[in-house]
Write a structure and sequence with these properties.
The complex is a heterodimer. Chain A is mainly beta. Chain A has strands at 4-7, 10-13, 19-25, 31-38, 42-49, 56-57, 64-67, 73-78, 87-94, 104-105, 109-113. In chain A, the strands form 2 sheets. In chain A, strands 2, 4, 5, 6, 9, 10 and 11 form a 7-stranded mixed beta sheet that branches. In chain A, strands 1-3-8-7 form a 4-stranded antiparallel beta sheet, with no helix packed on it. Chain B is mainly β.
């Protein structure tokens, strides 16, 4: 099993460009998450999904959109990138909530917006 | 709003010394608590989780944490630090929407 994979691993964008980050999991997990990690700020939740076809806003959703058309995939979109979106993005999945919400993380995508 | 607070963004210990990393959670955080570890340039991996079966939880690599409801704390400990324990540690809590602390970087001094 590959676990959680993220594509791409690195990306450089210019301000105003758009892009989509892809997260895929092969563990049949219900829940999926997108986080950003910035120095001194820990992980902040952008959006999450508790099942195929569902999405919900997290702590810092502005400037991002997501879709979960298939259970195994969770896409994060940036419509018009800004330098403030320079960060490391992590995707995670978990079987379900509560005590079962052990999250499995992908390796991360390092995004730089110039 | 739910919050998870980690006291000390950097902690240094000598090899062989006790490791204590502090985590407090707000009362609005459901009592589903986790500790994760992150090594450089990697994603996070689970160290241990509180499942309400026991207040003292044992995890991987000799780490353990004690859930204290009266103190709203879930501190992480290890009796004897190894060089390989140098990493960043995150406390987290929540039911669906999980909140992470800002992380504590552990330095182990030879």
């Amino acid at each position: 099993n590959a676990g959680v994979t993220q594509t791409p691993k690195f990306r450089v964008l210019k301000t105003g460009q758009s892009m989509t980050l892809l997260c895929a999991q092969d563990m049949n997990h219900e829940y999926m998450y997108w986080y950003r990690q910035d120095p001194g700020m820990g992980l902040r939740l952008i959006h999450y999904s508790v099942g195929e076809g569902t999405t919900a806003k997290g702590e810092v959703p502005d400037g991002y959109n997501v879709s979960r058309l298939k259970k195994q995939n969770f896409l994060l979109g940036l419509e018009s990138a800004a330098p403030s979106q320079t960060s490391v993005y992590f995707c995670a999945s978990s079987p379900r909530g509560g005590r079962y919400n052990e999250q499995f993380f992908g390796p991360g995508t390092r995004l730089t917006v110039l | 709003a739910q919050s998870v607070t980690q006291l000390g963004s950097h902690v240094s210990v000598s090899e062989g010394a006790l490791v204590l990393l502090r985590c407090n959670y707000s009362s609005s955080v459901p009592p589903y608590l986790f500790w994760y570890v992150q090594y450089p340039n990697q994603g996070l991996q689970l160290l241990l989780k509180y499942t309400s079966a026991a207040t003292l939880v044992k995890g991987i690599n000799g780490f353990e944490a004690e859930f204290k409801k009266s103190e709203t704390s879930f501190h992480l400990t290890k009796p004897s630090a190894h060089m390989s324990d140098a990493a960043e540690y995150f406390c987290a809590g929540g039911y669906q929407k999980v909140t992470f602390g800002i992380g504590t970087k552990l330095q182990v001094i030879p």
